[in-house]
Amino acid sequence: MDNRRSVAVIGGGPGGYVAAIKAAQLGARVTLVEKGRLGGTCLNAGCIPTKILLHTAELYNQLRASKSLGLKVDNFEVDWKGLMERKEEVVNGLVKGVTGLMKANGIDVVEGTASFKSPGEIMVELPGGGNRSIETDAFIIATGSAPFIPPIEGTELEGVIGSTRALSLDQVPESMVIIGGGVIGVEFATIYSSLGCDVTVLEMMPRILPNMEEEMTEILKNSLAMRGVKVFNGARVTSIDGKGRGLMVHFELDGKNRTADAEKVLVAVGRKPFTEGLNLEAAGVKLVKGCVNVNDRMETNVGNIFAIGDCTGKNMLAHVASAQGEVAARNIMGQNTGMDYRTVPACVYTQPEMAGVGLTERQAREKGYDVKVGKFPLAASGKALIMNDTGGMVKIVADRRYDEVLGVHILGPRATDLIAEGALALRLEATLEEIATTIHAHPTVGEAVMEAALAADNAAVHIPNKKG
Ligand code: FAD
Ligand code: NAD
Fold this sequence. Notes:
Blueprint (H helix, E strand, L loop, with lengths): L5 E5 L5 H10 L3 E6 L5 H6 L1 H18 L15 H25 L3 E4 L1 E6 L2 E5 L5 E5 L2 E4 L3 E3 L12 E2 L1 H4 L8 E5 L3 H12 L3 E5 L11 H13 L3 E3 L3 E8 L2 E8 L2 E7 L1 E4 L3 E3 L6 H4 L3 E2 L2 E2 L12 E3 L10 H15 L13 E3 L4 E6 L2 H6 L4 E7 L4 H5 L6 E7 L4 E9 L2 H13 L4 H5 L10 H9 L13
Parallel strand pairs: 1-2, 1-7, 2-3, 7-20, 9-16, 10-11, 10-16, 11-12
Antiparallel strand pairs: 4-5, 5-6, 8-17, 13-14, 14-15, 18-19, 21-22, 22-25, 23-24, 24-25
Helix pairs in contact: 1-9, 3-4, 3-6
The chain binds flavin-adenine dinucleotide (FAD) and nicotinamide-adenine-dinucleotide (NAD).
């Protein structure tokens, strides 16, 4: 007789598979149901494949600048088919890795689509036909999200695509209009413009990446423009229509009607929680604005049912889904823990990369803090100069009263790796002085974080400080 607590996880993305592993590590008997491929959106159609294409795009741009790096490189070109093959290879390798982890942790993976029959039972529709009923002590819903399709006439036309399709086109299109200047929009703008496509980004808000540090999104917009990307802020798309073999996007800008032609139109205006077919009514689980409603312990309104990841409509990020998965598993297994969203880093894998954690300067002021800001331009960083990537900066936002760091924002090479220092600083409630007196290795871009902390007190070493 197996007396272990039993847990069924619905969905095998970075939320679900991490929750399953954690629950198994804590002694649960775990079943994971997945209707597609293990790894979910992140591994198969999100984080990983986009970054594979971005990596090649970055190398391609470096080759373009080879002369200034002391290299003579002639005759290089994009091998799109080879890049698609590499993408498949890396993704398949990682899916295999997750499959191996399931096995190593004794998790029973069931291929099929799950739906609730009652608060204590799910039915899995198996791919070859037939059903399997699963009754467990606890359930974790981790069914992810799907693209939001805006009510714009023409989105059904051939050539109008979403991010999944944009990851496996037959070739680099000659031109692309991207509707939405959010994370997906600017990452694909970086990929395709680097590889020779004529890209236009249409963003409805007054700036791209509206939730990131303002000053930095301006710099990023300029660096996209330098790569030939046309970015229109405050652009309201009204319709898309066919034009010969291509498409024409109609939009309003400053009260005037404008158009942009393109071979492909990528729609990237956000994602919505995915709960279709789960039959949540049978379990009594409440949705609020389409999101599975959870508290910080990842509990839904039904005692034994938890939910994590994109389907909860919190920050739709892989690392958030995984952290929520860990919290849910721990609580199911008798521990008592909750999510802290204050220290979640947000990363954008553009060139240069952008990353932020905590409050932006504007958010800190709006919250009423007496704000102190330190900035360090990467033009003064030895390592950034070595890397030929000096357009960015580090900005630290702090509370003048206690000197506590409230936000760290980085634009520059490997910003997405460097932001971990900012997340740790916020988690430990670090002060500016604690960052400034932490010895950072030389030469590294990370030194700029230390210099920005010093700059907040007009004490930076490698830039002139403000007088007085
Ligand atoms: P998912 O990864 O979506 O997994 C849900 C799984 O549930 C799927 O495999 C699905 O098949 C399965 N499922 C659904 N319903 C059922 C059912 N009824 N029965 C059985 N199985 C079911 N985030 C980052 O942090 N960094 C990035 O760089 C990044 N890049 C991205 C790029 C793109 C193009 C996109 C689209 C997203 C990106 N994201 C990124 C977001 C990230 O992919 C998601 O936040 C993350 O995948 C959410 O994890 P999840 O486990 O909640 O859901
Ligand atoms: P997003 O919310 O990041 O950006 C959508 C953008 O579209 C916003 O700037 C919004 O103002 C704009 N918009 C909305 N309606 C519009 C319209 N009608 N016309 C023009 N612009 C319009 O969403 P996304 O870029 O689609 O990404 C979806 C999710 O995937 C995000 O939640 C993100 O967290 C996640 N993601 C993360 C990463 C990463 O972490 N690097 C990468 C890709 C995606």
